[in-house]
Amino acid sequence: MTVTKNTVIGDILDEDFEVAPYFLEMGMHCLGCPASRGETIEEACAVHGTDPDELVAQLNEHFANK
């Protein structure tokens, strides 16, 4: 899987729930919430005041090493 800022969080979690800690580290503790699962990386990072590019890089590194 290749992640972009426009990738929906629910799709990422459905692909591999082992990435949940990356979201928890950025302060996104509501991963089970239907609204959060429908947000894109960019939308979630805007709400939580974090850098979407950094999260995208971490997620892509994770998936590249699978």
Structural features:
66 residues, globular, 58% helix, mainly alpha
From the spread of the alpha carbons, the general shape counts as globular
- Strand tally, please? 0
Which H/E pattern describes the elements? Answer: HHHHH
Overall residue-averaged pLDDT value: 92
Largest beta-sheet characterization: none
Report helical residue fraction.
55-70%
Identify low-pLDDT runs: none
From the N-terminal CA to the C-terminal CA, the straight-line distance is 10 Å
Q: Whole-number radius of gyration?
A: 10 Å
| Tally of contiguous helical segments | 5
| Number of structurally distinct domains | 1
- Determine the strand fraction and express it as a percent band: under 5%
- Indicate the structural class: mainly alpha
Descriptive notes:
The structure is a single chain. This protein is mainly alpha-helical and 66 residues long. It has one domain (9-64). The chain has five helices and no strands. It has helices at 9-15, 20-25, 34-37, 41-48, 52-64. It is globular. The termini are close together.
How is the topology of this model organized?
Layout: H1 9-15, H2 20-25, H3 34-37, H4 41-48, H5 52-64
